[in-house]
Amino acid sequence: MAQKKVIQEFLQLINKTESMQQLMKTVEEEPARILLAICREYESTGEPVSDHRVHISGFIGEMALKSLSLAGLITIQEGGHFALYQYLPTEEGITQYKNLSGN
Asked: Residue 56 and residue 45: Cα distance in Å, rounded?
């Protein structure tokens, strides 16, 4: 129990820093940014979106994609000729896209 309190105090201390606040903001915003990019491209082409068309930033971007998939907002498919993966928004993903973009 004492160790848990020590960890909570530590987290309270570092979570007050600007760098941790920016990191948490990025973690919260990255899935929405990626979903918007996938849906815009899909809306434009009607085709699954190749991975090279979506700019993913490292570990946070990869986890955002996984979260979008696990939440049922996108499906991840094997890529075509020039891509490892392709992303396809689901109906719920399109609904969320419209809500996020104000459409």
From this structure: 20
Rounded to two decimals, the pTM is 0.87
Q: Report how far apart, in Å, the C-alpha atoms of 98 and of each of 21, 76, 91 are.
A: 28, 20, 11
Report d(CA 34, CA 62) in Å as an integer: 10
Half-sphere exposure of 102 (CA within 13 A, CB side): 0
What is the tens place of the pLDDT at every residue in 8-64? 999 999 999 999 999 999 999 999 999 999 999 999 999 999 999 999 989 999 999
Q: Which amino acid is at 5?
A: K
Residue 2 main-chain phi, psi, to 5 deg: -65, -40
